[in-house]
Amino acid sequence: MGSIAPSLAELDASNIKVTRSTNLRNVPKPGSPEEMSHSHCTDHMVTVRWTASKGWETPEVRPYENLSIPPTASCLHYATECFEGMKVYRGYDGKMRLFRPDCNGERLDMSSKRGSLPGFKHDELKRLIAKLLEIDGPRWLPKDRPGEHLYLRPTMIATQANLGVQIPKEALLFIIAVPWPDPSKVKPGTNAHPGLKLLTSHEDNIRAWPGGYGYAKLGANYGPSLAAHGKALSMGFNQVLWLFGSDRQVTEAGASNFFIIWENKETGKRELVTAPLENQLILAGVTRRSVLELVQTRLSQSVGDLAPLDVVERSFTIGEVEQAWKEERIVEAFVSGTAYFITPVSLIRNGDVDMNMLKAGAERAEYAALIKSWLEGIMYGKEEHKWAYVIQGEGEQ
């Protein structure tokens, strides 16, 4: 009789071990250099080790500290790494909420497998995060500061010490929480609707391609794009609007999904247009998915003075955007994502053409603000919704 292979342990948040910090970190004030650094983490972190021989080990909430990995770790040489971007919100009712965390867990599981890393039961991710926030939430996201949030970064890295090209046999899942400035909030003394300025990518610089991995949230997607991003910043722009192919298809704006609202030339109807998922050129953003579902259910009819929107997921080119801009059919453009949330686009530069998006539909551009208010209502508990995951068992330190 053949031997039976031992079963591997599944990721299980129910048996999590907690080691509390005895050296608490300073909580930065809003707008402080520590908050603006995007790197001042809370008191604790979650770590879970995985091995190919045993599976997932016992998860642990432990004091925040630097990781120790060998210089030959797979993640340092072969980009065997993936991550998620999430937020936890302090509601106006005093409760903390995650927004659609199962979607993030499912995507992290997918990205991990795409990057030759282990899969896991994706609904366990929100339970690990909840345990971390039960401990750090009272200090870092106190009940007397509703309407604020922390940024969450679940990350998977291959830690196996081996320079050979092979599927990793050891990995680490860790989760950190970071105070994060809100880029959608206007600073005092600035224009009430500043918007983002986007610079279209050069033809010889491609972010993603069919058959690649642009649809997965891998670290390998980001490093090669930073040079173009840095150049855009030096020219006074906020993000790169990534184009693909000889016809210059619009894909993503930096690390955010891109939307444009225009009037269809043939029908005159208003459309919310964004790139499709089928060709795997863009990330299936959780905020993107939520925007589309809200528009389909709440803007299929007029809302106040706003005409209904048809949701259109299709490939479209920067040439179509430019034509619509010249014909004054553009109503509004905006981006969506965890970091930028819902932020309007003020200008797009394509070659020697500057398209002023705010001027294009200044009197009509209220859709993004409405969608943002709907999402904030869910995130901060003003509206009870199935997308909100309430964190229970919050304690005091």
UniProtKB/TrEMBL annotation:
Enzyme class at the top of the EC tree: transferase
Assigned keywords, A-Z: Amino-acid biosynthesis, Aminotransferase, Branched-chain amino acid biosynthesis, Pyridoxal phosphate, Transferase
GO process annotations (BP): L-leucine biosynthetic process; L-valine biosynthetic process
GO cellular component: mitochondrion
Cofactor names: pyridoxal 5'-phosphate
Modified sites of kind N6-(pyridoxal phosphate)lysine: K217
Family: Belongs to the class-IV pyridoxal-phosphate-dependent aminotransferase family.
PANTHER family associated with the record: BRANCHED-CHAIN-AMINO-ACID AMINOTRANSFERASE (PTHR11825:SF69), SUBGROUP IIII AMINOTRANSFERASE (PTHR11825)
Protein name in the entry: Branched-chain-amino-acid aminotransferase
